[in-house]
Write a structure and sequence with these properties.
It is a single chain. With 93 residues, this protein is of the alpha+beta class. Helices cover 33% and strands 18% of the residues. Strand 2 and strand 3 (27-32) form a beta hairpin. 24% of the residues are buried. Bound molecules: zinc ion. Zinc ion binds at residues 46, 50, 66, 69, 86-87, 92. Zinc ion (ZN) is lined by residues 46, 50, 66, 69, 86-87, 92.
């Protein structure tokens, strides 16, 4: 319950990561294995913000969730360039 399980898996290039809550109440974070470690770290911080902010409960607009997660992740790990979207909004959960 409330564990965070991280897996590196192959993913299409338009998706850097996603997070899903499973039936045990654990959070499964998937990170694109092809990305450099710096990008994977940013992706992880982004997904972590979705968990911390309760976005997986689905009560908030997905675009707002994306903006919140992205802003918070950037504060934790400022990025040098524009990394593009971490994932499509519907892939949060
Ligand atoms: Zn996101």
């Amino acid at each position: 319950m409330n564990d965070i399980i991280i897996r590196l898996i192959p993913m299409p290039y338009r998706i850097k990561g996603l997070v899903k809550e499973d039936a045990d109440g654990d959070y499964n974070v998937y990170i694109r294995e092809q990305d450099p470690i710096e990008v994977q770290r940013e992706t992880y911080l982004h997904e972590l913000e979705h968990i911390r902010r309760g976005h997986l409960e689905g009560l908030k607009e997905v675009e707002l969730c994306e903006a919140e997660a992205e802003a918070a992740a950037k504060r934790r790990a400022p990025r040098s360039g524009d990394p593009g979207r971490v994932h499509e909004p519907h892939r949060i959960a």
